[in-house]
């Protein structure tokens, strides 16, 4: 009897042990499945960036007291721009070869200075877009290791410096620049080349160094074939017809003429204009640099003057009769600006009823101006006169002779630049 009972108990114990093992295995399998699902959901919700994942996992482990919390906090290093760099950028924006000052009486903005006083600043329009202006700044000051981003350069733009879209009516453009610009704009839509995006990139693509006279005068053998290699070889369909415009002198008048021809013909037209365009760009930049240098007067012995004719203004009367509209008189304005030592300047305007704008008007105005300057500045020895290249007014042999005569008359050395 005892033997049968022992066998019965052993069999019952074996059967219960197997059931418990199966139940335990089932629970472990279910728990492992839940763990994998939870791990998958947690990993899926983590950021994709590896560094951010590490930060999240570390933060969770610290909250669950798995690892100790760190007491050290990472402090971001603040890199501020120097005052000298900020002033350099602001002075760069104020240059005449970078921005154009609007002449209107109402073209100004009101700002508040550091003392809380209001002051007016004349509006100036950028001659390039922000990216082109930034590239010019970087190229000019590359030897000074200037570390400045495009965003910071734009944020430092003064409030009176406006982008070129604010110009109500853009006129008096350079015919060299505008004709080349009118050619590269339609070509940029059909030729894959970064050099056709703007005039600045186009000039940089053509030469090795924009500051080198040999390259800009097409005498360098290294960059003489840049136009053919970078543009002509990238043309996909040279026989496709496109449309472009050019400023052309016809019947004594400058007109904007429309052309409709193949891409190849447009490229040939552009290629003919490259050599005079590069020469003009180099001379213009050298003259602008010399003009900016002369404006920084070190002492009272040197004065810099800029002269030019303004447009003629009609003299209108209030409550005038209808017939007087066709018989109104006009006056001519000869405007000058004088830079002298200490960073100061002064404007002079000569009003005349003679609207011919000829050499006699120029000579009379300069004669009176030199008389006033020699009386005011007792130690004056040198006068630099800057003007545009108008052949009727300034760029002529009569004015050169008159300036020499006026220099002897007022006992001061003077030269005229245009």
Mean pLDDT: 85
The CATH class designation of the largest domain is: Alpha Beta
- What is the second-level CATH architecture of the largest domain? 2-Layer Sandwich
Please tally the β strands and state the result: 13
How many individual domains?
4
Following the backbone from N to C, one meets helices and strands in this order, namely HHHEEEEHHEHHHHEEHEEEEHEHE
Strand content: 15-25%
Number of helices: 12
Low-pLDDT windows of residues = none
Distance between the termini: 135 Å
Structural class: alpha/beta
What is the CATH topology of the largest domain? Answer: Nucleotidyltransferase, domain 5
Overview features:
418 residues; elongated; alpha/beta
Description:
With 418 residues, the chain is of the alpha/beta class. It has four domains: 16-72; 83-166, no CATH class; 175-291, no CATH class; 296-417, 2-Layer Sandwich (Nucleotidyltransferase, domain 5), CATH 3.30.420. Helices cover 43% and strands 18% of the residues. The chain contains twelve helices and 13 strands. It has helices spanning 2-45, 50-63, 83-93, 130-140, 150-155, 175-187, 199-206, 213-216, 226-230, 263-295, 359-376, 397-410, and strands spanning 99-101, 108-112, 118-122, 124-126, 161-162, 241-250, 253-262, 302-309, 313-314, 330-339, 345-352, 382-386, 413-417. A hairpin with a 5-residue loop joins β2 (108-112) and β3 (118-122).
């Amino acid at each position: 009897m005892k033997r049968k009972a022992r066998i019965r108990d052993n069999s019952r114990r074996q059967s219960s042990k197997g059931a418990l093992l199966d139940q335990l295995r089932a629970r472990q399998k279910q728990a492992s499945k839940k763990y994998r699902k939870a791990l998958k959901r947690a990993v899926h919700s983590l950021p994709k960036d590896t560094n951010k994942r590490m930060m999240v996992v570390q933060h969770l482990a610290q909250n669950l007291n798995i690892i100790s919390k760190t007491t050290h906090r990472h402090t971001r290093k603040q890199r501020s721009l120097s005052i000298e760099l900020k002033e350099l950028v602001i002075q760069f924006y104020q240059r005449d070869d970078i921005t154009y000052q609007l002449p209107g009486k109402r073209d100004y903005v009101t700002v508040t200075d550091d003392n809380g006083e209001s002051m007016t600043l004349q509006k100036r329009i950028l001659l390039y877009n922000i990216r082109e202006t930034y590239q010019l700044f970087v190229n000019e000051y590359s030897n000074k290791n200037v570390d400045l981003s495009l965003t910071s350069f734009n944020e430092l733009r003064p409030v009176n410096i406006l982008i070129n879209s604010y110009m109500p009516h853009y006129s008096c453009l350079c015919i060299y620049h505008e004709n080349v610009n009118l050619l590269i704009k339609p070509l940029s839509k059909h030729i894959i080349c970064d050099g056709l995006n703007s005039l600045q990139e186009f000039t940089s693509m053509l030469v090795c160094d924009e500051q080198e006279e040999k390259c800009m005068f097409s005498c360098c053998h290294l960059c003489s074939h840049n136009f053919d290699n970078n543009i002509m070889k990238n043309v996909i369909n040279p026989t496709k017809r496109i449309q472009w415009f050019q400023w052309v002198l016809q019947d004594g008048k400058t007109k904007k003429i429309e052309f409709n021809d193949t891409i190849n013909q447009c490229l040939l037209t552009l290629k003919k204009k490259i050599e005079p365009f590069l020469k003009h760009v180099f001379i213009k930049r050298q003259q602008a640099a010399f003009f900016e240098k002369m404006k920084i007067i070190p002492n009272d012995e040197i004065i810099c003057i800029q002269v030019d004719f303004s447009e003629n203004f009609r003299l209108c009367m209030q409550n005038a009769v209808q017939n007087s509209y066709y018989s109104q008189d006009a006056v001519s304005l000869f405007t000058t600006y004088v830079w002298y030592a200490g960073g100061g300047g002064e404007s002079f305007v000569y009003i005349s009823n003679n609207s011919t704008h000829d050499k006699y008007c120029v000579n009379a105005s300069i004669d009176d101006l030199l008389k006033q300057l020699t009386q005011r500045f007792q130690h004056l020895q040198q006068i630099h006169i800057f003007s545009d290249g108008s052949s009727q007014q300034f760029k002529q042999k009569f004015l050169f002779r008159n300036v020499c005569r006026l220099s002897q008359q007022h006992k001061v050395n003077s030269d005229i630049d245009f």
